[in-house]
């Protein structure tokens, strides 16, 4: 049966990096007989320009029909001043929530070849391999009411709401435990249960789910401590499960431990492992169109897609190995470049990964 993949290149560097990831996907398709079929559409600023909204109904329908989605990134200064309800990021939030993509997997893995690119000492980060499981469709980014208002005394006030229901916590906790089970069997749940009611329920429900996973060692940590521990001794973590906002912040922090956000893929999964795959970084308008963006995060997102949605572990391993070969060859885009390495552009990096994959 063919595998339908919807490609949403997005804005800024999105089309450049997605083009390279598609080359790698097509090579893997040929080499491993995956049977993938690709179709294309717009999300974000490009969709606003074409359809007048950041996510058109027809695009959403196409996404529903697809088995997996590959996204570049959305946003840019061109759309910063439009109606906030129509901003590119709203399209991203909408597609995640409409498709029920509640489980966001964000690995922070340091390739040994890039240990020097980290802002931390090599001995603290060497061998780092953390998986952050972030709840993606609930919590404060979606909670209502939310409001900007003017009080009777004339002062401006704004507030958001942070709701979590038991079922939302239970399903993301299960993803965390399942991931821990196939890794080192250690799960750290991050919350702010000393202050927030939503975190107190979070902790209670995670404890309940833990009863079904007696082989996984569960620990809890407050988010402020987790932020500190991530830079003090990051290798103490293996799998972290946390809510939407805490996961947003901690995964960006973890990404910098690895040297460049240009290396980090992500997966957003629904209950049946249908997923949207995208690099962790944004649309990098500062370097868009220059042909210098690092396509490896997007290429590694393709590898995650093959692993988690299509169960093609061998093809996924091969793509990761090809990336490693290219790093061994000393090829680097500007964001991960260091003395003695060969600086290459987006296209050369993509071509090198395709060649390495072909030669495995
Ligand atoms: P960003 O991730 O786009 O860029 C941050 C810095 O990292 C920039 O200096 C950029 O040049 C660099 N960078 C990012 N990806 C890179 C790559 N692949 N190769 C080399 N360097 C890379 O974050 P930002 O500047 O805060 O946001 C820019 C736009 O992206 C905004 O409109 C923002 O809303 C949007 N954004 C989108 C997503 C998404 O689509 N998922 C995520 C974050 C930000």
From TrEMBL:
It comes from Serpens gallinarum. Binds 1 Mg(2+) or Mn(2+) ion per subunit. Catalyzes the oxidation of 3-carboxy-2-hydroxy-4-methylpentanoate (3-isopropylmalate) to 3-carboxy-4-methyl-2-oxopentanoate. The product decarboxylates to 4-methyl-2 oxopentanoate. The record marks 141, 192 as: Important for catalysis. Substrate binds at residues 96, 106, 134, 224. Its cofactor is Mn(2+); Mg(2+). Residues 4-353 form the Isopropylmalate dehydrogenase-like domain. InterPro entries: IsoCit/isopropylmalate_DH_CS (IPR019818), IsoPropMal-DH-like_dom (IPR024084), Isopropylmalate_DH (IPR004429). Homodimer. It is found in: Cytoplasm. It catalyses: (2R,3S)-3-isopropylmalate + NAD(+) = 4-methyl-2-oxopentanoate + CO2 + NADH. Mg(2+) binds at residues 224, 248, 252. SUPFAM superfamilies: Isocitrate/Isopropylmalate dehydrogenase-like. PROSITE patterns: IDH_IMDH (PS00470). PANTHER family: 3-ISOPROPYLMALATE DEHYDROGENASE (PTHR42979). One of its GO terms (molecular function) is 3-isopropylmalate dehydrogenase activity. This is 3-isopropylmalate dehydrogenase. Its main location: cytoplasm. The keyword Magnesium applies. It holds the Pfam family Iso_dh. The keyword Metal-binding applies. NAD(+) binds at residues 76-89, 282-294. Belongs to the isocitrate and isopropylmalate dehydrogenases family. LeuB type 1 subfamily. It comes from the Bacteria. Keywords: Amino-acid biosynthesis, Branched-chain amino acid biosynthesis, Cytoplasm, Leucine biosynthesis, Magnesium, Manganese, Metal-binding, NAD, Oxidoreductase. Its EC number is 1.1.1.85. Pathway: Amino-acid biosynthesis; L-leucine biosynthesis; L-leucine from 3-methyl-2-oxobutanoate: step 3/4.
